[in-house]
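Issue: copy button drops trailing tokens. Both records pasted manually instead:
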Amino acid sequence: MCQAGEARRPLPLMFVWLSACLAAVCFLSLLFGAGEIGPGASLSSLLGMREGAAQHAEEAAFVIHELRLPRTMLGLVVGMALGVAGALLQAVARNPLAEPGLLGVSAGSAFAVAIALMLGASAATLRVSVAQLGALGGCLCVLAAARMRGVGNDPVRLVLAGAVLSGLLGALTSMILLVDQRTADEIRFWIVGSLAGRHLEDLQAILPSLALAGVITLLIGRPLAALALGERVAVGLGHHPRLVRLLAIGVVALLVGATTAVAGPIAFVGLVVPFAARALAGPDIRRTLWLCLPLGPLVVIGADIVSRLVVQPSELPLGVLTALIGAPVLILVVRSQRLPTL
């Protein structure tokens, strides 16, 4: 009864409300930072007011337009991508605990990047496709684990299997960093997950992949909703379950690989965002995906703002903060008396 009531909530109204909240958070992201440019100077610069010394005004304009604006825009894209990827992965695995960071997808992407750097690539010339291939390998491992007897039907066991895979890939990545100092120098800040120091060129590099992923997601939304009713029902409606799953896995690889390439592995966003979206929209995957679009950036940019302020004048890595947010959500889902059916 509760789920039915949730499903009747008007989706456009929730989407508009969340989008308004996201716009407010984006505005705050332009105002607040860890440096000397505070909210007052930032607001004056945004409004075109030239109060104080000219040098200070120019510095405020530089911080906003060259540092905070690209960071905010990247947070928008990363949040959307990770939220949608988490929802798709949970739908394919039929498991509310399936999340790219927990099940080794992000770790596979990071491992592929580490290998590429060890073989001579640099962070500046690294191709997004490398991270996407690593993410695809992690996705295939997740799909294989979900079909193992006694694992796929048990959410906790699936997470444990994913934790083993993540640990193994993380250990291999650490070994590469230990034996190759240049790779360690290139990857040290990136691997903890952060939006700091990124540029609009980084965003432009991943837009083609994200556009392709968006088109495929629109095409498989209805088949995924039918697949949630069972394979026989999906086949009876004219869909091909295996093809739908493969396409969904491909989309997850595109999304997670692209975001990992530009922002590093950011854990738990793909768990928190779909969990909140289902709580608002009900179990229909199509409604969940729509709400993930504003909810994902809301979580990522909100966490990024907090990461700038908690340890001033330094910054806390975004990946650390999302882990602090996501861990209690994971515990909440695991300790629920009845896990939601996807």
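Record 2 (pasted manually too):
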Amino acid sequence: MLKKELRVILVSLIVSFVLTVAKFSAYFMTHSVAILSDALESIINVVAGGFACYSIYLASKPKDANHPYGHGKVEFFSIGFEGAMIFIAGILILVKAAQYFLYPRDLHQIENGLWIVGVTTIANLFLGLYLVRSGKQLPSITITGNGQHIMTDVYSSTGLIIALSVIHFTGWNWLDPAVSVLMGGLILTKGYQLMRRSISGLMDETDMKIVDKIIVILSSHRRHNWIDIHNMRVQQYGNNYHIDCHVTLPYYLELTAAHDEMKYIEKLVNSEFKGSEVEFFIHMDPCIPSCCHYCLKEECAVRSHDFIGEIAWTRDNVLPNRKHG
């Protein structure tokens, strides 16, 4: 898995470096600030690719005494670093565009610049799709984030091609810094989104999509001994997850039987999370008389209340630290 992730990110690094050189050559040829904006963003692709290589290597290291949950959190640093670099590039692009508004420059060889930008955009499109698909298959938030950044580069480059075409046929050179401003705004937005994703991961913000997925898995394989599940907390460490929860079981179950139920839950969820490891810390709660009205266990010699109806598991009753009902 590690070799495949490193191979994917190395492909991104090499291609991004070649495309950056091509874009800067187009800038020196045309003196277009919009092309310069595109080239500056490509530098970020190269820098982020290098940092991603290290973060993928570090995230693959096994757990140790100092890092009992592994090293996966470094991937959130990686996308945060990339987001910060993108944000800085966006600011530089806006500053450069303002300078060109105040001190306009003549553009040269627009047609040649168009061809270079067009070829690099097509190459970036294939690279971005490759990274996003690989990031989902592995899975890797670093590679996925890198792919999403490349796709943003594709969208901005497409707008750049349209603007340069208009400039070429109309001579409206003022469009050059105007388009650069739009690209700078788009880049700032993408940088903010990546930094927001990084902060949420480092702060252990709950990913409700993962919570919903776990609830669906457990609900569809629900056993009668699982009276309810509550106080669920999900933490992500790179590609892996750590889950705390309480499971209410019949109070008279022997320890071995209760342990078997817990191991089954862990095995069940792991079988549905392809490419990821899910570690469970499960606290076993004994049932109390108030559980009887929603307990599905039909043959129970100690039932003290009639069964009224099953309570569906949702975020509202799985996340809080209290038994259902």
